Amino acid sequence: MTSLTKRDEVRRPDVINASGRLLGCVNAHSLSNKVAALSRTIIDEQLDVLVVTETWHEGAQSSLLKRATAPGYHSIERLDVLLVTET
Question: What is the pTM of this model?
Fold first, then answer.
């Protein structure tokens, strides 16, 4: 197993059991240095779903997002968009 620096670590996700599904949630504060740790977390925690916030990735086709997705899983991505309207 690769040793992670403090900056690369992913805090253990908050996990709940909802209707027999294990759901986890973690704030990544950027995927850039955590793709392996996030993918490993999905497997290690035996999660059905992992919600990752503050990923700071480029979009649905991001290579970081693809690498963070564990084998046998797929990602669903939604960017937060700030809507500014003219007054």
Answer: 0.71
